[in-house]
Each structure stands twice: as C-alpha cells, then as structure tokens.
Specification:
The structure is a homodimer of 205-residue chains. The first copy, chain A, is an alpha/beta fold and 205 residues long. The first copy, chain A, folds into two domains: 71 residues, Arc Repressor Mutant, subunit A (Orthogonal Bundle), CATH 1.10.10; 112 residues, NAD(P)-binding Rossmann-like Domain (Rossmann fold), CATH 3.40.50.720. The first copy, chain A, is built from eight helices and ten strands. In chain A, strands 6-7-5-4-8-9-10 form a seven-stranded mixed beta sheet. Chain A has a three-stranded antiparallel beta sheet with strand order 1-3-2. Chain A is globular. Chain A binds a DNA duplex (24 and 24 nucleotides) through helix 3 and strand 2.
DNA sequence: TAGATTGTTAATCGATTAACAATC
DNA sequence: TAGATTGTTAATCGATTAACAATC
C-alpha cells in the first residue's frame, strides 16, 4: 500500500524537478531533491521506489526522465477534465489559475446567479447551475472544484457524484455524513491559518 | 507530544460544533461529532483528551463549552494580526474571504504593481510592496499570506521573517532550502487536484 | 576498477484503533 | 442505582529513518 503522503510529495518533487530542468539541470541526487522539497533523501528514494527504479546507481536521477515518470504515475500526461461550481470572487480566481496549468482542461463553470450567466472568465463560460446535471450527462468530467458557501456543498456533491465525477475539491468544509463513491477533499484557508497560528505560538515557547 | 493531525482536526470540530450550535444543539456525543467530521469517535475523544477533560461522562460534550475550549486551545479567542502579499486575482479573493472571519484582523495588503497602490479591497488598503519592511517594524504581525508567483516567495518570506512574522501561508510552492525560524505552509491547488486525480483513478480499479 | 549513490531492508517512531475502567 | 458515555491504556497499524548491499 502506497502512503497518501507519498503521492502528495510526488507533486512537490515534480515542481522542484521542473524548476531544475528550466535551469538546465540534467541529473539530480536524492539529497538535492530532498533539501529543495523539505524532506529527507531516504524518503525521496523510498517514495520513488514504490513505482520502480528511476535512478542510476552512483549517478542520481535524470531530471527529464523523472519528470516524465512522475507525470505518468499521477496520470497528468493526458488532460484532466474539470468543472468549477461557484463563480464568486474565489471561484473566479481559481478559474483563472486553473487555466494556466497546461494539463487541466476546464470544460465549464456554473453559478446560481443569473447575472453571471454567459459571462466569460478567461476562455471559460459561466453557465446556469441548473444546467449542471444535464451537462454531466453529455460531458465526462474527472474532477469538480467547488467554491460556494458551505450550505450548498452537499447538494452539489450529490449532483456531481450522480454525474460520474470521481473527485471533488471543495473550498468550504461540509459535514459529509453520507459515505460517497468519490474522493472528497477540503481546502479551508481559515483552518490552515488557525493551524499555523497554533504552531507559531508553540515555536515561541 | 500532540500530533499535528490533532490540531488540524480541532479546526474541523470547531466548524461542526458551530453549525450544531446554530441549530440549537446543546450536547453532542463523540460518535456524532466523529460522523459529521469524518473521523472516529475514539479519535475525537483522544484529540480532546490531550487538552483536558471537556466532556461529561454518560452525557457527551456541552456544545457551547467545547467551542470555547477549542477556540482558546487554538488561540483564536483573541484577534490574529494578518497581512497579505500579492493582490492579484487570487490575493483579492483571499483578502475578501479573510475579512469575513471575525477573529482575523487584516492590517494591510501589499503589491508590487503601482497601479494597485491606494486601492481598497473591502476595508483593506493596498500598499507598495517596498513599504513592507517598514510596516513590520511598526506593526506586530502574527501571520502572513502570500499569493505571488513562486519566484518571489523566497524574498518575501525573508522580509516577513526578519519583520517578526512567525507563520506564513503561501499559495505558491517554493523551494525552501533555508531552515527558518517560522512556520511555513503551502497550499497548492494544482497539487491538490493531482492528488485527487490519482486517488480517483485508484477508486475505479 | 574505485567511487558514489541508488534501492531495499530492518528498526524506529508516531498516530490510530479498540477495549474498558472510571464516573456522571 | 442503572445506563450511558467519557477518558485512558495497550495493541495495532502505518509511515519515516538509518544503514547497507547492490550496482552503475
């Protein structure tokens, strides 16, 4: 069984490796990658070894090859079909950001607010939220991103699940009593800051 | 030693408890809280027991009391002084969101772009990024939020650290070779989606 | 070949679970 | 008191580290 933390670190390695490649780096050692990514060399080697032997003993890892290997482990060597629900200020910002990532294919954005329908954020058109169900029947969607107030999350998650979406990232915490046939993650900025504040206070003492 | 995961869960419990309180709930059982927050009853009791005995044996936990207890554990019973660096589309959205949380006191927002100086996002004024160092000398700041491209993160973190900020939340991954006398957290939306996509694909098989 | 670093194993560390005694 | 649920302990599970044999 591969630890979840390993998968998360692969994303971090990928970013460090890409930056290395841009700088013209050809080989990288587990010690270097570890230092840059804030882990240990042991862990870098262990993480990679779950998926195969990507390194050259005595030499290190070929940067370009390792980037490819990690991309195909994560499955991002082909486009990921995304939609966004909730085009408020946060939703709009996320929508802009997601369009900058080459392997994200944003199929549409949905909102309740009539005034937003038909508007574009970058290349993506805002559609009425009640089109969502129909849209999912006609377009296979991998992941959904939700940026609406907490009260609405449950219902939207239901619709996405029935529409075949297998993963959801929500920017509002929701109570999720219902076990679901999908992967559900929450990003709560206030919670991150609370955690940070607690740790920062411990640091002082 | 208290697990980091425990602290993160406290934030989640807090949100579930507040929602319960709004519904008029007076007592809550560890089993109920666990179900709503996606953990186990054992873990709820263990997490709370690190900080004391907040429950009533045979009865459960008084919702209002537990909310207070968790707030003072996290230290959010007094305002947290925050600043934001980088007032792009994501920064603006975060700035709006943070202003909605009662215990966050946003002292200022900073940006490189001259055109943004003097503008307001809600109640917060955008100041020139080169004012930051001086600003920190005159205003004690608990936490900083960074929403700028990755290249600039290192320098801003330096400035914040020297200015006495003890915790930073960055929305761009940065390579952090330098060990720091502060707590540094990264939120990377693309990385979250990559993780979600990997897990969603495993789910199918 | 000699030198260096990977991949892997065993040991350690930490977090979660399960079970139950304490007690409201 | 009897019933119920907390707080806590010991057992389990999982992830990280350290050390080294394999090998480029």
């Amino acid at each position: 069984m591969i630890p979840e933390a390993t998968i998360r670190r692969l994303s971090v390695y990928l970013r460090c490796l890409r930056r290395g490649l841009r700088r013209g780096e050809e080989l990288v050692l587990s010690t270097q990658l570890a230092r840059r990514c804030g882990t240990s060399a042991s862990l870098v080697r262990k993480d990679l070894s779950y998926f195969g032997g990507f390194g050259i003993k005595g030499k290190g890892y070929r940067v370009a090859d390792l980037i490819h290997a990690i991309e195909s482990i994560l499955g991002i060597n082909k486009p990921i079909a995304l939609i966004l629900v909730g085009v408020g200020s946060l939703g709009r910002a996320i929508l802009r950001y997601l369009q900058e990532v080459p392997y994200f294919n944003i199929l549409g954005a949905f909102d309740n607010d009539e005034k937003k329908w038909g508007r574009r954020v970058g290349r993506v058109e805002v559609l009425p939220a009640h089109f969502l169900r129909r849209f999912l029947e006609e377009n296979p969607v991998d992941l959904g991103v939700i940026a609406i107030p907490p009260e609405g999350v449950e219902e939207v998650v239901d619709t996405l699940e029935r529409g075949g979406v297998r993963g959801v990232l929500s920017f509002a915490l929701a109570e999720f009593e219902v076990p679901r046939n999908m992967v559900l993650e929450f990003v709560d900025i206030a919670a991150e800051l609370e955690f940070l504040y607690y740790k920062a206070n411990k640091l002082k003492t």
